[in-house]
Amino acid sequence: MPKIGLFYASSTGHTEDIARLIKAKMTENEVDLHNIADTVDNAMQNYDLIIIGSSTWGEGELQDDWEDYIDNLDNVNFSQKTVAMFGLGDQEDYCDNFLDAMGIIYKKIVQHGANVIGSWSTDGYDFDESMAVNDGEFVGLALDEDNQSELSNERIDKWIEQITPYFNK
Ligand SMILES: Cc1cc2nc3c(=O)[nH]c(=O)nc-3n(C[C@H](O)[C@H](O)[C@H](O)COP(=O)(O)O)c2cc1C
Predict the structure, then answer these.
(1) What is the mean pLDDT of residues 71-100?
(2) Are residues 19 and 54 in contact, defined by beta-carbon separation less than 8 angstroms?
(3) Phi, psi (deg, nearest 5) at residue 97
(4) Cβ of residue 130 lying under 6 Å from some atom of ligand 1
(5) Is the pTM of this model over 0.85?
(6) I want to staple 101 with a disulfide (CB 3.0 to 4.6 A). Which of 54, 72, 91, 124 is the partner?
(7) For the chain, what is the mean pLDDT?
């Protein structure tokens, strides 16, 4: 069972709930959960397979714990690492900054050589701008617990089906 490190942060608990759900659903892998708020600087170094979860706050800003942590990513060599990302946001109230934090973290880890898998279609979402869109797709799973929570379960299942072969090859 290849081991995955899932690193997330959460202000009101949404991203934390989703992180736990993903762990429970990923039966083909052992998933270690790491809340970024309690994570030591170089913890990602210990995993070749990584999932990163983030919500967006302010107007297109990182969640506070990610804000404090993100510079540590400059010290991680991602060139041998496979990374999948998920982001939480609110496409109605923040339609110009939907899921921006996922895009900010994506940019950083790609600069450091990460192989990012698990991109996600923008179909079914209604927003104007997002830093999490690259080449017409979200760079990771897009979730909106504020407006589309009823769709999350199915989206997560589909995404796990999509990423699992890459994590287990
Ligand atoms: C003050 C405030 C600012 C927010 N800013 C954004 C934003 O810029 N973009 C976005 O997509 N969502 C934004 N959101 C929505 C949150 O990302 C969303 O509620 C998310 O589920 C929170 O997850 P968490 O509890 O794990 O931090 C904002 C929410 C609040 C209350």
Answers:
(1) 97
(2) no
(3) -135, 30
(4) no
(5) yes
(6) 54
(7) 97
Confidence band, pLDDT 50/70/90 cuts, at residue 1: confident
**How many structural domains is the chain composed of?**
1
Tokens of 140: 């990771």
Inform me whether the pLDDT recorded for 85 exceeds 90.
Answer: yes
User: Is 19:63 a contact under the CB 8 Å cutoff?
Assistant: no
> Which ligand 1 atom lies nearest to the CA of residue 99?
11
Q: Is 87 in the pocket of ligand 1 (CB under 6 A)?
A: no
User: CATH code at 15?
Assistant: 3.40.50.360
Phi, psi of 18 (to 5 degrees): -65, -40
Report how far ligand 1's centroid is from the alpha carbon of 99 (Å): 8
The reply to whether ligand 1 has any atom less than 6 angstroms from the CB of 88 is: yes
CB contact set of 90 (below 8 Å; sequence gap of 6+): 98, 144, 146, 147
Each residue of 3-24: pLDDT tens digit? 999 999 999 999 999 999 999 9
Cβ-Cβ contacts under 8 Å for 12 (sequence gap 6 or more): none
Domain housing 138 = 3-167
Distance separating the N- and C-terminal Cα atoms of the chain: 11
Tell me: the pLDDT tens digits for 23-40? 999 999 999 999 999 999
